[in-house]
Amino acid sequence: MSPPRYGNVLQMIGNTPLMAVRRLDTGPCELFLKLENQNPGGSIKDRVGLYLIEAAEKRGLLKPGSTLIEATAGNTGLGLALVAAQKGYRLLLVIPDKMSQEKIFHLKAMGADVQMTRSDVSKGHPEYYRDVAERLAGEIPDSYFVNQFGNPANAQAHEETTAPEIWAQMQERLDAVVCGAGTGGTLAGLTHYFARTAPAVELILSDPAGSGLAHYATTGKLPAKTSPWLVEGIGGDSVPPVADFSGVSGTYSIADAEAFRTCRELLAREGIIAGTSTGTLLAAALRYCRAQTRPKRVVSFVCDSGNKYLSKVYNDYWMLDQGFLEREHRGDLRDLIARPHAEHAAVTVNSTETVMAAYRRMKLYDVSQVPVMQDGRIVGIVDEEDILLEVVGNPAHFNEPVTRAMASHLVTVRVDAPVAQLMEIFKRGMVAIVMHGSEFQGLITRIDLLNWLRRRL
Ligand SMILES: Cc1ncc(COP(=O)(O)O)c(C=O)c1O
């Protein structure tokens, strides 16, 4: 069969491939992943974007140039932006102000208008993002509040496309599907379809530890308390109207650490770069598979691409900082160094390089100072202020050797020095240069100390 040819990008939504997991331990079971990351907008939410907009069109709620309004910085925003641009609608997204710059750049580049609102307030507050979106829809003429959390077209997308695709791809031999719930649209769609078509198929909910939805699915009540989790796109502390937990036959609560490690394992072993929620789903799917006593055929999802999470789950420094990766424990100040020189991880500049090179490296790695090295030894340190003082009267000094701008009087600490000594250095506005004998080990900044203290909580 030749590869398909498409007439436009919207035709590429859905019909995603199913891939067998071969190099992870699935016990007696066969496990398959539905690669929703292969949708043109990069996630399972492209299907929802298309359905939400086409449902409104069918109801006669949209005219050319109408404004769609939604409250999300997530994948639904991207799915809606993709479809809205193709169909000639404006899209206004209301976004809490904690969202990453990358997500906002991506949405704007797709043509969406983005309005930021406070992320530190919850439902009922006038600046809560979902309430702002709903209010704007009342104020802006010819606009439509999409409302994925309450819109039945969300679940319908999965009932009419995701679920039947899985059933056909598994040749109607399927024992269980493991999925997550954010809006609950995926789960509701699967529930409706399989209740009708193959009621023996088990639906397993994988929920981030801290979220209240697994508890709700088993008891019908939300827990008294929820706590934050880092996985994005799934979990919640309230039950969305579109969700349907009636078909859930088992639940797993997966801690962030396990989810993040599973994501990395998926990439290393199976070659798929997935987003963090996939780690939650896959961790539960693997636990389910290994717990079976007879072979079963199981499906789970790669919900979105991991390219959006490179600086988190695929970044060793971030993983170490969160305590999700372990490094050798030394019991001295080396445990506080984020980028050890011995691992070639410290950001440095050579004494033969220019002020410009130091400035560029600081920008690239988002650090405020770099050690200056000569023949493997540290001979100075240069920070933003040193560079500013050098170039403020004469920008041509960017091309001078970095040794002109650096401070060469180095205040160092030994690896066995007490933490209190770091505080003295920080109070003088400096960073700690950690030495073991004459060997440079790395830098410790205020944020490194804060991170280390937090990890010890
Ligand atoms: C990133 C991401 N967004 C959204 C969803 C789907 O959630 P829902 O259909 O419940 O909104 C998933 C599903 O696992 C997901 O991984």
Q: Topology, please?
A:
Blueprint: E1 18-20, E2 30-35, H1 45-58, E3 67-71, H2 75-87, E4 90-96, H3 101-109, E5 113-117, H4 129-139, E6 143-145, H5 152-169, E7 176-179, H6 185-197, E8 202-208, H7 213-219, E9 248-254, H8 256-270, H9 276-290, E10 297-302, H10 316-322, E11 349-350, H11 355-365, E12 369-374, E13 377-383, H12 384-391, E14 412-414, H13 419-427, E15 432-436, E16 439-444, H14 446-455
Parallel strand pairs: 2-10, 3-4, 3-6, 4-5, 7-8, 7-10, 8-9, 11-12, 14-15
Antiparallel strand pairs: 1-2, 12-13, 15-16
Describe this structure in words.
This protein is an alpha/beta fold and 457 residues long. Helix content is 35%, strand content 18%. It has helices spanning 45-58, 75-87, 101-109, 129-139, 152-169, 185-197, 213-219, 256-270, 276-290, 316-322, 355-365, 384-391, 419-427, 446-455; strands at residues 18-20, 30-35, 67-71, 90-96, 113-117, 143-145, 176-179, 202-208, 248-254, 297-302, 349-350, 369-374, 377-383, 412-414, 432-436, 439-444. A 6-stranded mixed sheet has the order 1-2-10-7-8-9, sandwiched between helices. Helix 11 (355-365) links the parallel strand 11 and strand 12. The longest helix is centred in the middle third of the chain and has 18 residues, at 152-169. The chain starts with 17 loop residues before the first strand and ends with a helix. The mean pLDDT is 94. Pyridoxal-5'-phosphate (PLP) binds next to helix 6 and helix 9. Residues 44, 75, 179-187, 232-234, 275, 277, 281, 301, 303-304 line the site of pyridoxal-5'-phosphate.
